[in-house]
Batch of 3 targets.
Target 1
Amino acid sequence: MSTDIASIALPGGERIAKLGQGTWEMGERASRRADEIAALREGVALGMTLIDTAEMYGDGATEELVGEALRGLRDEVFLVSKVYPHNASRRGVERACEASLARLGTDRIDLYLLHWRGGVPFEETVEGFEALVRAGKIRHWGVSNFDVDDMEELVALPGGAACAANQILYNVARRGPEFDLLPWSLARGMPVMAYSPVDHARLPKRSPLDDIAAGHGVSVWQVALAWVLRARGVCAIPKAARIEHVRENRAALDLKLGETDLAALDAYFKPPRGKRALEML
Ligand code: NAP
């Protein structure tokens, strides 16, 4: 399998892997640690070099695991972490970032995201992010769980247009962003990072995914992931703690769904006909 993986561009032109790896719920159980580290390292070897984590995950234990997993691989990956909204003040982001860097065992985060909108005015968070960029602690900043109205507000602020990405819940069972947020992002050249691309392993027990998977000789999870990856301007960060899942997910990038597959999915997982509020997990 090729490790040369499809990529998408950040607004400044830098390219990141279209398929990455999530880490939520990793690093929480000692008995699974070795498998989780092996899974992440295998994913990087297969080209899934976009790694997503957050200070929230495992109260910092996940960032520590990611740091351990990436030992010797740091320069090969594009590392994303997220700050809690309650830490997103001008000084708070600095402190939170320092703590994340220490846990990750690195001197820089490639993309630092506001995890969701909280009570701190955006201006302050943007100032804090920009100071971190100037200090070389982060290379880009962005947001997560922002709907179109939040994005409009953000990019209108001084410095707000530097936002490099929006990480949102998007998968075949949660298609709301197709109505407005995906077109808005595509028009601005801002990547959407799809989280929970296999719906946190909660895809319906029976659906057209079954027949499509059987037809292609793959799993329903691979069909669901290929469906997300078909979208322009979208990258995806499935979490897989099992090495066989990592390999299947990488293979899903090469799976091309046909017109009849897509039509069957549209008939069951209906595309939005109007505005749906952005969901979050
Ligand atoms: P997900 O990636 O949709 O699903 C993860 C689950 O699917 C795990 O149980 C995993 O099993 C299973 N899985 C993965 N690949 C599989 C395969 N090929 N076959 C069968 N099962 C498979 O859900 P997620 O973890 O919620 O989302 C992904 C990442 O997005 C997170 O880890 C996190 O980094 C990020 N995220 C961000 C936010 C936010 O607010 N910004 C919210 C949620 C998630 P195993 O682990 O056992 O392999």
Target 2
Amino acid sequence: MYDKVQLRSCLLQTRMALPVIEWRQKSDDICSHLTNSQLLTNAKTILAYFSFRTEPDLSSLFYDSNYRWGFPRCVGKTMSWHVWKPGDSTNTGAYGITEPNSDASIIEPNEVDLILVPCVACDHRGYRLGYGGGYYDRMLSKTEWQSIPTIGIVFEFAYLPQLPIESWDKPLQNICTENKLVLSAE
Ligand code: ADP
Ligand code: MG
């Protein structure tokens, strides 16, 4: 069994070596699965991410102004979530990740209908491998976030039967790859 550090490095290498044309096509296919899902169409406020290190690119979705989109800023060990729409300014934040301005309106957990979670890998149980910061584990361990639907976003090559997990790892409810949207049985 690979440990998390090796797996992360191996899967990131594979992802970053994807030809741009494949990355674009797979990202567009993920967006289509999402726009066809009631999880999305029934939502109003959706938390997402700006593609970093060849994460699946969801940016075409952000132009749909039927939704209110929120994006994270890493502040110490936590994320704060802010409203952002195309045309609003961004900064480069911690880890080199694009983020909304600190003066953009804050989104509180009770306003959120759906969370799109970037993943280095996911497994068939919903467990997630991130970059190693534990940001989403810390967030999803809090009661105010626990009942909000989540969709892990991952390319199919990194959707694996079983990842190594630790006591603090929080599973996601649903997973979307370029091939399919896997909904939780609930
Ligand atoms: P990732 O989920 O980003 O792949 P890990 O699962 O390896 O990263 O977690 C990284 C760190 O985050 C761990 O050292 C762990 O101690 C910390 N962490 C995760 N969840 C919590 C939590 N609920 N409270 C405090 N620390 C946490
Ligand atoms: Mg984790």
Target 3
Amino acid sequence: MKKVAVLMGSESDLNCLQEGLKLLSDFKVAFHLEVVSAHRTPERLFEFSKTASAQGCQLILAAAGGSAHLPGMVAALTELPVIGIPVESKKLKGLDSLLSIVQMPKGVPVATVAIENSFNAALLAVQILALQDKKLHRKLRSFRKRQTASVKKMNQAVRAFSRAKKK
Ligand code: RP5
């Protein structure tokens, strides 16, 4: 098993995971990817969660939509940190998913990112792994520097826009 596992409740959640999976790949963090459904494959959920740590997994990302039990149930069955990604649902636009994942009662936390923000879930995973990995930490620093530098470019564009408007 890879250090990071990325679970999703359905194949239909894969689309919202693309940005996060790309970020993990960009940081060269290998990951295990699997559909594990809390209501359709509860036994697999149990087996995965109970064995993940012993198999070398250190962090679990779990995306689910609607009455999104997957992240909370996985978190209840392992001591590994779980990062939950609420998937946008058709009827309630993901508010149901967000509240289901974020409102964990005391004792079993799920670190929850914004609706469909798999990018931040992956980045948080990288930050946690970087605590024990100097090479990854260096990559994270340079990512942050590039991000900061991008605002300079934004301001150049904004100033150019403002000058053009005045003419
Ligand atoms: C949840 O139900 C999944 O996480 C998905 O977001 C949602 C809809 O699943 P499908 O009907 O597309 O399989 O279990």
